Amino acid sequence: LVLLNFFLALLKTIAWIHTDSLAVFSEATNSWIDTLYSILILAGVFISTKDPTEQYPEGYRRIEPFIAIITGIGVIITSLLIARTAAQTILTGESNVISEVSAITVLAFSGLTKYIMYRYCIRIYNTTKSPIIRAVGVDNRNDILTIIVALTGLVATSVGFNVDAYAASLVSVAILYSGITILKQNAEYVLARSVPDDQKQQIKNVALDNEKVEGLHDVRVHYSGPQIDVSMHLEVPGGLTIEEGHEIERSVSEEIHSVCDEEINEINLHTDPKSLKEWEKS
After folding, report:
1. Cα separation of 237 and 213, whole Å?
2. Measured by CB atoms within 10 angstroms of the end CB, which terminus of the chain is less buried, N or C?
3. How far is CA 65 from each of CA 182, 225, 258, 264, rounded to the nearest angstrom?
4. Tens-place pLDDT, residues 58-75
5. From its phi and psi, is residue 192 left (phi > 0), alpha (psi between -120 and 50) or beta?
6. pTM score
7. 220-279: per-residue pLDDT in tens?
8. Could you give the dihedral angle defined by the CA atoms of residues 250, 256, 259 and 263, in that order, rounded to the nearest 10 degrees?
9. What is the arrangement of strands in the sheet containing 227-236, beginning at the earlier edge strand?
């Protein structure tokens, strides 16, 4: 991905120099930013796959959202710089685009390449559930849209409609949306946001489906980095043996793993005799 982004950035920069198109310039800038954060992502993936240590017993997976946040910030800054340049061009009316077939070809080739990269990232994400890979996939998808806008602006300019700066403005908006999406999702990972209500209810239903579980309390299901932590107390009949209580916890844990679409980091279950109702007194 790093080499592909670098190659596309180089091609777009050459096309921009030849055409003086602001839309092509915005695409070139976007690709250079893509190249820089691809390097960050490569480092993040390398660190996150290191084996757990005594100091970090859960490994380094939680570093991924932080890398993705840096990616999102970089994308947002890029969009603002492009928007500023586009606004200045619109206000001053200074636009001297020299449309060339070569630039149109470069953008079309970039769009095809980004689509291939997008499909690759989605395939990897479906296997790893990595937020870094998802962030790259989202950015590649939005890059396809921005390329289409830039390409449309360049073609329109070539037939006499001077809309280059407006096309660049639309590109900046799409890039901004991409950055905000990446930033929001990964900030939620870092802040350990609770999972959506329907997903939480699904997990509760799995526990209640066990014939020995008569109720639940202190249910917490939240993100731990890109993974999920599940914690709940199972209300069971009194008088069960330790082995029976353990079997209930094991069975419920396995069922939760089987229905949860997202990767689970840890499940903490505790059995409480329902007759005591200690949780109601606290």
Report:
1. 8
2. C
3. 9, 7, 25, 16
4. 777 778 788 778 878 877
5. left
6. 0.65
7. 999 887 788 999 999 998 888 889 989 999 999 999 998 887 778 889 999 888 877 766
8. -110
9. 215-224, 227-236, 264-273
